[in-house]
Design a protein that fits this description.
By secondary structure, this protein is of the alpha+beta class. The protein is built from four helices and three strands; from the N terminus they run αααββαβ.
Length: 87
Amino acid sequence: MNVYLDPKECEPLYQDKLQYYQSAGLRGILLMLKAEQKQGTRFYQLDTSLTLKDNLKEKTVIEFPTIYVVLKDHKDAFDILGPGESQ
C-alpha cells in the first residue's frame, strides 16, 4: 500500500492522481468492498489490519471483486453494512 500512498515511492505518473490519498495517509482512507447479493448498493468496510483472506471471510465474492479506496471524509456517501449484517 505504501507504494501508492508514499509520495517518495510512488511513480511520478500516479502522484498527481493520488495526491489526496497520499496527504490523507493510511489513517485517512477506508477500503470498501461492494456487498454482493444484498438489496441496493451496500458495502463492507474492510479492516486494514487484517489480511485480504480474513477480510473476505463469510462474504460473497463474484469473479473479480473491486476494492474501493475512499477518503474517510467521504464515508457518508456509502451505505455500509454493520458487523451483524455480514452474511
